[in-house]
UniProtKB/TrEMBL annotation:
Chain segments annotated as coiled-coil in the UniProt record: none
CDD domains from the UniProt entry: TM_PBP2 (cd06261)
Native source organism of the sequence: marine metagenome
InterPro entries xref list: BPD_transp_1_N, MetI-like, MetI-like_sf, OppC_N
Presence of the UniProt keyword Ribonucleoprotein in the record: no
Protein name in the entry: ABC transmembrane type-1 domain-containing protein
UniProt keyword terms in alphabetical order: Cell membrane, Membrane, Transmembrane, Transmembrane helix, Transport
Phylogenetic placement of the source organism: unclassified sequences, metagenomes, ecological metagenomes
Membrane topology: Multi-pass membrane protein
TM region positions: 12-32, 102-123, 135-156, 210-229, 269-290, 310-336, 348-366, 372-394, 406-423, 435-455, 497-519, 602-624, 631-654, 660-679, 714-741, 769-787
GO cellular component: plasma membrane
GO biological process, one term: transmembrane transport
Domain ABC transmembrane type-1: 96-333, 600-787
Length: 800
């Protein structure tokens, strides 16, 4: 009975999340200048535009437009896609079958490979086999999926195609399926339809077309599952019942496969569902490479055509798929693990939110007027609730009794100032932004304030007058820290993978720092350098018109005894360039070197801003719990329901501004919810520890409890996740650049260079895409390995 109540509850809670998703898509649609744009094509006449505005209430106030928009969604009227010239709702049904079939095969490949490797790695813990599997998994997480797909396509379909008989792309052999021997495809799943029709020829053809894209799509999911399965197995193998089984004489294989692996699989179920939903992100890139006619390729084509109806429809449909996948995982997890708290008691707040959501959806579906009435009621409830909260905390609860109680609003204001300072540029025209310091000024002011504060404390305590006492106390407090640093350094350098990652990171950071020396910009690039635009001047690659559509090979070869003997140009090139050129005449070497500055700048700004937001919101949500926590988690649920890459593409599309700054905003919006949930979970765990309870009983304020006791104990997770996300953000940046979005065509960015090179794959000019993709993989791999190493030395549970 409890399980059924849990299932019904989870089903009901998906409705408010879906409403939140529709609010996001509606907000995106209103960001466009013309509200009728999502429903128009190039051939729409002024009369037809007026009729569209009248039909969809586009000249009405925003509340009425939202209710009309929601009513159209519920009735299946999702707009018209000018990319493929059909209704969006109909196109989704057709395209979804292709993406679903590809995702299922990729999922099977990932699970069938990852679980045995994860078990094997845990059994051979800290041996060379374990390090090899871990490196294989980390490479899978670090390699850009679009670059890996190009490598697979070049090797197995082009170079070895006469042996493998694997096609270069598309979903099937059009001649076989449409002319020579057409069969019925009622499900749209070609493998299933081939089996139903009893045709081995069609089944083999469909499967051959799926092998390479499914392998490329499944590798990243496989890598994440390996790491989770290995970690779960290591935890289980340390349990008492495993030791007891071994003491009774059971063989290691019996204990591992018969007992440990089954219990380790339970937490893995959660990631498998999330991984399947995450395949939607990968399908956007994979389908583009192999021209697979699914949702991913349609998304990219819609972006390039500014097909807003299709983009918003795909955002909603992707969110529905993600919610369904997570719902199935939650139910399966609750069924498999009896220790899961099913939470049979339902809060009044949840009941009210769910009932109002169902009421709003029902009335919007039935009649727009009724929907408007309910929306008006919801607005009244919201404002009354907000007024009640203010009265309760300010007058009844009286949380503000002294100046120190104002820390929460001050912290929120400070967070907003930090975020705006990071993205402030010298040419910011906003009157408000003129009073916001730049990020460097803010850091300098904070450091001066901190040192001044420390100096005043030492002076008031009399330490400066007694120098002997000052030095002795300084040494006694600093000595243990030095010993702790020595211990951590020893632990870190014992890990060969962590050291390898540190070397990669240092190398790439040095390349970014010394870019003007390693790849000097030309006089033309220096002359057009705009001090108000950080992405101008040397950050823009110079087009060599004499080499347009005439790729120049690298003058450095792996077999050269003297690699630079043939490189005699101004920057070491002769006809071609050090690492070759693109079809636009861009120097690949120059793009890689200066692209490191682009990647570093974007990664630091996005990670720092997202971390700052996530830490502030997550630690407050976890510490207070209750209603505050419920509100924050429901907001993060809405954002996490939409696949990150799809949401980022939608934001860039509707704003029609593919600049790097806008791309960074999109990445922050996509990135902060997941980090917030992790910090919130840590804060929930720490707030219940005895020393926090003791400090609370002693009268410590909430500010002191959160920032002196709770937050410092979250630092391990913050450092590790932020370090690893330095690699993840660059992978996302490269993916968007590969699709052609962000910063313009001449910006030095690694993903763009891979995109320029993919068109010459069949000509054997592999340098055009290979070197930039390799650098992306090394960047991500370096930070992933470094993050793993930091976790091992910062987390006491990971120490040997």
């Amino acid at each position: 009975v409890k399980l059924w109540i849990y299932i019904i509850r989870r089903l009901a809670l998906t409705v408010p999340v879906l409403l939140g998703v529709t609010l996001i898509t509606f907000s995106l649609s209103t960001m466009m200048g013309d509200p009728a744009a999502p429903y128009m094509t190039e051939k729409t006449s002024p009369e037809e535009r007026d009729r569209i505005i009248e039909q969809y209430n586009l000249d009405a106030p925003l509340p009425e437009r939202y209710v009309t928009y929601l009513s159209n969604l519920l009735h299946g009227e999702w707009g018209f896609s000018k990319t493929i010239h059909m209704d969006v709702s109909e196109a989704v049904q057709i395209k979804f079958a292709a993406t679903l079939e590809l995702s299922i095969l990729a999922f099977i490949i990932a699970v069938a490979t990852a679980i045995p490797l994860g078990i094997f790695s845990s059994v051979r813990h800290n041996r060379w086999e374990d390090h090899s599997v871990r490196l294989f998994a980390l490479i899978g997480s670090a390699v850009p999926i679009f670059w890996f797909a190009l490598v697979l396509k070049y090797i197995f379909a082009f170079q070895w195609g006469h042996f493998t008989h694997l096609p270069l792309g598309y979903r099937y052999d059009a001649y076989l399926w449409e002319i020579a021997d057409p069969i019925e495809t009622p499900t749209g799943l070609l493998l299933v339809d081939s089996i139903v029709a009893g045709s081995w020829v069609h089944f083999k053809d469909a499967f051959r077309h799926m092998v390479l894209p499914a392998t490329a799509l499944g590798y990243a999911s496989m890598a994440t599952t390996i790491r989770l399965m290995r970690g779960n197995m290591l935890d289980v193998l340390e349990q008492d019942y495993v030791r007891t089984a071994k003491a009774k004489g059971l063989s290691s294989s019996k204990v591992t496969l018969g007992h440990a692996s089954k219990n380790a699989m339970i937490p893995t179920v959660t990631l498998l569902g999330m991984g399947f939903a995450g395949l939607l992100n990968g399908s956007v890139l994979t389908e583009t490479i192999f021209q697979w006619p699914g949702l991913g390729l349609w998304t990219v084509n819609s972006m390039r055509n500014l097909d807003i109806s299709a983009i918003l429809g795909l955002v909603i449909f992707s969110a529905i798929l993600t919610i369904i996948a997570n719902l199935i995982v939650d139910i399966a997890y609750a069924y498999l693990d009896p220790r899961v708290d099913l939470g049979s008691t339902v809060s009044i707040g949840e009941m009210v939110i769910v009932l109002l959501s169902f009421l709003f959806l029902g009335t919007a579906y039935a009649d727009i007027v009724w929907g408007l009435a309910v929306l008006w009621l919801l607005q009244v409830i919201f404002w009354l609730g907000l007024i009640w909260v203010l009265i309760y905390f300010l007058a009844i609860k009286r949380i503000v009794t002294e100046v120190s109680d104002l820390w929460a609003p001050a912290l929120l204001i400070g967070t907003a100032i930090v975020v705006m300072s990071i993205f402030k540029t010298p040419d910011s025209n906003s009157v408000f932004l003129r009073f916001i310091p730049t990020f460097s000024q803010l850091v300098l002011f904070s450091l001066l304030f901190w040192f001044g504060f420390i100096a005043m404390r030492w002076k008031s305590s009399g330490h400066l007058q007694d120098k002997h006492r000052f030095y002795s106390e300084f040494k006694s407090s600093f000595g243990p820290r030095v010993e702790e640093w020595k211990r951590m350094s020893y632990q870190f350098f014992r890990n060969p993978l962590a050291v390898f990652g540190l070397l990669i990171v240092i190398t790439l950071l040095m390349v970014s720092l010394f870019a003007p020396i390693l790849a000097p910009p030309s006089e033309t690039q220096l002359e057009r350098d705009d001090p108000n635009d950080p992405w101008d001047g040397p950050m823009r690659m110079e087009e060599n018109f004499e080499f347009n559509h005439n790729l120049q090979p690298p003058c450095i070869t792996w077999l050269s005894l003297n690699p630079l003997e043939n490189c005699t140009g101004e920057r070491g090139e002769e006809n071609g360039f050090i690492l070759g050129s693109t079809d636009k005449g861009y120097d690949i070497y120059y793009g890689i070197v200066w692209g490191s500055k682009t990647s570093l700048d974007v990664a630091i700004k996005v990670v720092f801003t997202g971390t700052f937001i996530a830490v502030v919101i997550g630690v407050i949500s976890g510490y207070y719990g209750g209603r505050i926590d419920e509100i924050v988690m429901r907001i993060t649920d809405v954002f996490m329901a939409i696949p990150g890459l799809v949401l980022a593409l939608a934001i860039i599309a509707v704003t029609d501004d593919p600049s790097i700054s806008n791309l960074m905003y999109a990445l922050i919006i996509v990135w902060w919810p997941g980090f917030t949930r992790i910090i919130r979970a840590e804060a929930l765990r720490i707030r219940k520890l005895p020393y926090v309870e003791a400090a609370r009983a002693a009268g410590a304020s909430d500010f002191r409890l959160i920032f002196i006791h709770v937050l410092p104990n979250c630092i391990t997770s913050i450092i590790v996740i932020a370090t690893m996300d330095m690699g993840g953000i660059v992978l996302s940046l490269a993916g968007l650049g590969f699709l052609g979005f962000g910063g313009g065509p001449d910006l030095a960015e690694w993903g763009k260079l891979v995109d320029y090179g993919q068109g010459h794959l069949l000509a054997g000019e592999t340098w055009a895409f290979f070197y930039p993709g390799l650098v992306i993989a090394l960047w991500a791999l370096g930070f992933y390995l470094l993050g793993d190493g930091l976790r091992d030395i910062l987390d006491p549970r990971q120490r040997d």
